[in-house]
Amino acid sequence: MVKIYSKGEISKIAESGKILAEVLNIIMQEAKIGASLKYLDGLAFKLIKEAGAEPAFLGYKPDGAQKPYGATICASINDVIVHGFPGDYKLKNGDILKIDCGARYQGFYSDSAITIGIGNISKEAELLIKTTKNALEEAINIAIVGNHLEDIGFTINKIVKKAGFKIVKGLVGHGIGLKLHEEPIIYNFGKKGQGLELKAGMVLAIEPMVSSGSDNIIQKSDESWATADKSLSAHFEHTVAITENRTEILTK
To answer: Residues 24-65: pLDDT tens digits?
Structure first.
């Protein structure tokens, strides 16, 4: 069942989202050639705790995972799409880094992701990042009262295909609020006008995940997900609230 949140509850999710947005902004500035993923993870942990919040991913065990996640951020490099573990790897010129992070503040969750080009990246990588970010923005624009859940995926897939890229299979967005993952599942493809009707009070984590090559994915030994053909990938995500008059981005 999809939860409908009150204005007061949405304001609490927005407080969580503001903390998260500020953390990701600092992490983006620190993600430079030579910086280790472990350093970025430690910084995110420190910033979230200093803001009075809790890292949402640390200790969280998603469905199908063998063990709880052991870090604050997911840091995924190049072909790795999501759930990359922030170890000792140091960022190199030309890397494509995806940072996914969540916060819990006063019992309410927010979730957001960004993709960062490190140093000088290829034209293909630039277009991939730009396309994925644009797909998220346009999907948020149509996530309004009276439209339907599959309109989100339809919009994302249309933009991605037009640019010559592909939506990866098996990875989805979700509802969020009192839990990190709630109903509904949000696919990054769909049929226009189909699916659940969007209503005021719904809070969604919309997250296009895009490949420059194959849309098939593989799971690595660290439980991260990567493109099957090792092609580059990008990922952007915002937590948004649907209200009567507009859709509010809570992690911006």
So the answer is: 999 999 999 999 999 999 999 999 999 999 999 999 987 777
* Among 40, 43, 39, 45, CA closest to 57: 45
| Count, residues in the chain | 252
β-pairing verdict for 173-175 and 182-186: antiparallel
Which residues are 237's β-sheet partners? 113
Coil, strand or helix at 162 = helix
| Helix or strand holding residue 160 (H, E) | helix 149-162
The three-class DSSP label of residue 120 is coil
| Residue 101, amino acid | C
Tens digits of residue pLDDT in 108-133: 999 999 999 999 999 999 999 999 99
Torsion angle in degrees (nearest 10) through CA of 94, 74, 110, 208: 50
If one counts every other C-beta atom within 10 angstroms of the C-beta of residue 88, the result is 8
> How far is 59 from 55, CA to CA, in rounded Å?
9
Burial class (CB in 10 A: 0-12, 13-18, 19+), 156: buried
**Residue 244 burial (10 A CB sphere; 0-12, 13-18, 19+):** exposed
Residue 13 CB neighbours (<10 A): 26
Per-residue b or e along 187-221, where b marks 16 or more CB atoms closer than 10 Å to that residue's CB: bbbbeeeebeebebbbbbbbbbbbbbbbbebeeee
Q: Tell me, what's the pLDDT at 65?
A: 76
